[in-house]
Batch of 2 targets.
Target 1
Amino acid sequence: MLRRGGFFAFFPLAWMILFFVVPTFLVVLLSFRERGTLGEILPGYTLEHYRRLADPLYMGILLDSLIVAVVVTLLCLALGYPLAYHISRQSRRSQRVWLFLVILPFLINFLIRSYAWVILLRAQGVVNTALMKLGLISQPLPLLYNDGAVLLGMVYGLLPFMVLPVYISLERLDRRKLEAAYDLGATPLRAFWHVTLPLTMPGVLTGATLVFVSSSGMFVVPEVMGGAQSALIGNVIQNQFLSARNWPFGSAMSVILTLASLAMIALMYRAFRTAGGKEPM
Amino acid sequence: MTTMIRLKSVEKRFGDRVVISPLSLEVEEGEFLTLLGPSGCGKTTLLRIIAGFETPTSGEVLLDGKPITHLPPYRRDMNMVFQHYALFPHMTVEDNIRFGMKMKKLPLDEQNRRLEEALEYTNLSEYRRRRPHELSGGQQQRVAVARAIVNKPRVLLLDEPLSALDYQLRRKLQVELKNLQRDLGITFVYVTHDQEEAMAMSDRIAVMNRGVIEQVGTPEEIYLRPRTLFVAMFVGENNLFRKGGTTVAVRPENIRIVPESALAEEERASRAAVEPVAVGAAAGAAAAGAAMGGAGAGAAAANGPAFAAVARGVSAVGMAANGAAAGVTAAGAVPGAPAAGRPAADGTGDYGGAFGTVQDIVFVGGLRKTFVRVDADEPLVSGVLPLYDDAESVYPSGRDRRIVISCDTAGSRPPLRKGERVAIRWAPEHEVTLSC
């Protein structure tokens, strides 16, 4: 295969090696290096950073981050699947409009969009001001700088990553299989449960993987919308690289996060496979 | 016998486009009825209306006397075998077959009993744990059938169930399906564009064209007595001729090809048999015959003196035969049925007489098909039947309308050669008058 597609595979392959394999390798290497007092990398090798990670403080943050990622993934699925289903039911024309609307937020920088949420949700923000003016509340609601705000920001930002793959798998779904289900006596609800859902599982898995991976390492949203008390693993890693200048420790944390994410994804695939079965097509 | 399905002036339009003009059709209980027609004729839409996937724009659908027009598919006591089977790829053969029973919440032991029965009947027992993509096309087809019949539906609908299979397998499964229908006694409504398949399997065939049922009848009726131009040309091969204001069809097996060399002798023999009848027919015919004979001779003169002599002989006999036929028709006999006073059926009363050249001879199994190109300036000596040339569209594409096809048993007649000069003949009772 490499032989025949060799020419076309060369550049993507070179790209991946240069910007993915090599950096990953460097990160792994770095996580075993010793750090000098000023943040410089010393020549020796050590397991010290991993020992430090075993501290309940860091493990707690890692666990929190994974839980947040799982919750975000489930919320995106709960919101994204119905939306994708709805879009796939539209006429060709309005499908294009809907898809454009789904992608539209990407045209604006994610950081700016996160600050937009701050303007909406902060104590003197649009929502609170409106509610107070209407006399519905007397005190501003604590809408920002808590776990709920972090979840909101992440689900908002990552929803398209769920909608698009699910939409594609719904589009690819052979309608005749649904008709066959109706023909065999399945009501629309049961046909959805026994045919549509299992057959669109590949899209769900792709979407879930994208959302899960993106949210587990995300640091922008917790930073901007989460405030000081809701630090997630992404923020800690960012701090190690930027403020603490402890690159080896940050690298070790990255490695652990990557491994934990891979393990979660593997578990997810296992769970879906036994439930839905594989789709040959 | 009771009517299982009744369509009452069912019409289907998509926007302005009429897919099915109002039509009525009845399917008897236990019958194998085929909807036959070219793609786009509305046969699949009609089947989907019966199944409940489409709602007719107007009209009514009844199942065993009860209106089901607006019942969703999952409430109709019938099942469908889909064109590309539409098996569930994420389920095993067993789960596919079990699906309908599960949806109807049948007791588990009943499910298991029927499942075993269906697996055994369709020879799928050893594949029960496989997924559809691990099966061959023929096996998938059998799963689709098993999945439907296991529900014991009143009616089984089949939408081109064999179209994805190769010829050999298709022939085999045609027999299997027909046997299945006979064994189970289920009413079958079968959709196909393959007239051979329709002929081989059906009790009755409804030939459809452009959203209209052109004719309903047994395979024999459809073949032997097509009522319309479309049916005549769609089912089997046919030759069309213009006769006065009407169009007649003559099947290739009823067209006789006579080499010119054998003509003179044959004419001598036939003249004796025909002449007395011709004389008794009408005096007017004789006058017309003289005019036609003159035209024939004039045209034939271009072919050289020797040929002219033969042509003249033919024209005389042809007219005589025509006179006889006219007399019979006037007496009120049924066209196409052998009638008293008609010349003996040994070919002596043949129509036709157009001359042509053998263009091709093809052997199909035990049959010999001869393609004769009729001479471009052929005035058709008998004067009765110019070749049909109005509606070019009814001829299968690529077929030249000046080609007459003849078909006989290989070896039954002396072999013809390509390029040989021949005359074309047929007996009047083999003509089928068509409406357009």
Target 2
Amino acid sequence: MTVYETPLPGIGSRKEIELRDGRRIGIVSHRDGHTELIVSSLEDPDACVASVPLSHEEAASLGALLSAPRLVAQLEDEHAEVPGISTRQMVLASDSPFVGEPLGATRMRTRTAASIVAVIRAGTTHPSPGPEFLLEEGDVLIIVGTGEGLRRAAEILSL
Amino acid sequence: MNTTTLALIELGAILLLLGGLGRFAARIGMSPVPLYLLGGLAIGYGGILFGRDLNPMTHDSELVPFQDISEFTHLASEIGVVLLLLMLGLEYSARELVTGMRASWRAGLVDLVLNFLPGAVAGWLLGWGAAGAVVLGGITYISSSGIIAKVLGDLGRLGNRETPVVLSILVFEDLAMAVYLPVLTALLGGLSVAAGAQALGVALLVVAIVLVVGLRFGPQISRFVASPEQETFLLKVLGLALLVAGLAGALQVSAGVGAFLLGIAISGATAHSARDLLEPLRDLFAALFFVLFGMNTDPRTLPPVLGWALLLALVTALTKVATGYWAARRAGIGTAGRWRAGAALTIRGEFSIVIAGLAVTSGAMATDVSALATAYVMSLAIIGPVLTRYADGVGRAAARRQSRLAGAQTASGRTADGRTAGGELSLD
């Protein structure tokens, strides 16, 4: 994928990729560090239909949401030969009882036989998190298990 | 009451007024600059407070408004100009300027010719001589990079394709200022055209040297200014800026240009923290500069030049639209984007006032200059952003008309090539 970068003198720079339908999607990174998400218009390719300022945290969370499916797909590929096992991503909602709790408190393996193999937070992937790993709101949990195990895992997390 | 207490009361009242005006400007989403000028007009010579029995030519010392703080406001407004230009320089790194120049020199030259000439011709027709023509040319030439960047951000147009075209024209203008101001200083100092040409040569040389030094030694200069404590950093940056500005002024290069070039030489993280630190100071001193400019403009000198100012605003709005349209078209931007680029460039602001301020303080120019500049900037600083907002709709309508026309022509048996050419012609 080619990323096109255009300097914006006095402001920062614009980095974007071109989508299959010809639209541009990307960011304007301001020199003071904040980011703006931009999506170009179909009707007028020079203009933008959306231009949304994002804080550091928001940008990182959005990045995690966008990159999680790819990680899931990779893991699916890796254990494709094991029938009955699949991978899901689950977002820890703000009302989950495990926000601020260590991962061990979910007792996930004991209760569902499914394992949390990675946590994506603020754009960074934390692989194989230990039981002491503290969960936060908005964490994307990558969970591997059987269909039944994953269903129960979803129930436990959202209880 | 002694003079110090009086001065405190007067200064406090002025700042409070400016704060209120700024708040109002922010609420209706416009630049505060025109309102600061208006505030200055209202409270200054011939304004509502001091309007009676005052001859604008011989300011009666008994009636001089805010006399107790006149020395302070004079110096403060000089510092305001230095800080405005220092902040402008801090916005750019030498590298950005060089790449921007390379991308935009053609559009920059078109911009210079189309927008300097109307002002220069008007100055000549008004009988203000060579210096007057150069002053008025500069006032109509320079767009406000500050207000434009703000307006484009507010309208969510930073991601648009025509925006880099607009910004690189602004880079050209801002660099052109560094050459223009020394020439202006020489001309206003009553020097001959030959001395003006010499000043031009010196200015070009100095700008070139600063760009090379900025490219090569930017990090070293930045490190010299940088300091871990905010307090010492502020003192170092401000001290260096005033020192360089003063020296540049003494060398006839113009104080503002010295500060601007210093700003360019400082780059990276140092420039970033310097911007954060100096912004409130710039806001304070620049506001005092604008209000003092307004105060020194007698509102009664406005009506005679109002017609000229509005005519000039109309003509130079059109020439800026033409510049932006042309530049965007060269960059391969569609019809709607060309109109957006053109409209954004019509915004004039702080630097037109800086130029007028230099002309007035030199004493070489008729006081009409400040009245004309005030009316001119007030109209384009207010109308420009409105034009920019609605250029999108106008541009889209133009693009639709164009494609309709093109459709009609294809129906009558034109080739695909003839279609685009026909569509473009219909617009001009």
